[in-house]
Design brief:
Bound molecules: zinc ion
Strand content: 5-15%
Shape: rod-shaped
Number of strands: 5
Radius of gyration: 28 Å
Strand order of the largest sheet: 3-4-5
Low-confidence stretches: none
């Protein structure tokens, strides 16, 4: 049910309850204020969603900048070199990849939780 339908329903309930026309008119004015406010809030939500999308794109870009590509996958720099596990280059949010088989050093391949894989090609 839309906000305007809800407002009409409230006025109808007021009429059915036997409230005077003055009270119902006042209720109608207050409900118009509420629906206007709701319209403004919906507009604000749309603006925030657009802003959120832009910020996510910026974050994605800055995360990508922090990576170094090596062997077809992404590696994150640390003070001493690189993190032990690489990140998936194909997934947009770049999840960490695990070595396969597990506990095998060096692994035969790197596996992303979404099914992407890359053969082990050394470390950067
Ligand atoms: Zn992936």
């Amino acid at each position: 049910m839309s906000a305007i339908d809800t407002a009409k329903e409230i006025v109808r309930i007021g009429s059915a309850a036997g409230l005077s026309k003055d009270v119902i008119d006042l209720m109608e004015k207050k409900l118009v204020l509420l629906t206007d406010e709701l319209t403004n809030l919906n507009r604000r939500i749309v603006q925030l969603e657009v802003e959120n999308g832009q910020l996510r794109a910026q974050l994605h870009h800055s995360q990508k900048v922090g990576f170094q590509e090596f062997g077809g996958i992404l590696w994150k720099r640390t003070a001493e070199g690189f993190e032990p596990n690489p990140y998936c280059k194909e997934c947009t949010h770049h999840p960490v990849m695990c070595g396969e088989p597990p506990d095998f050093e060096p692994p035969l391949l790197w596996q992303c939780p979404h099914g992407h894989s890359a053969p082990f090609a050394g470390r950067p």
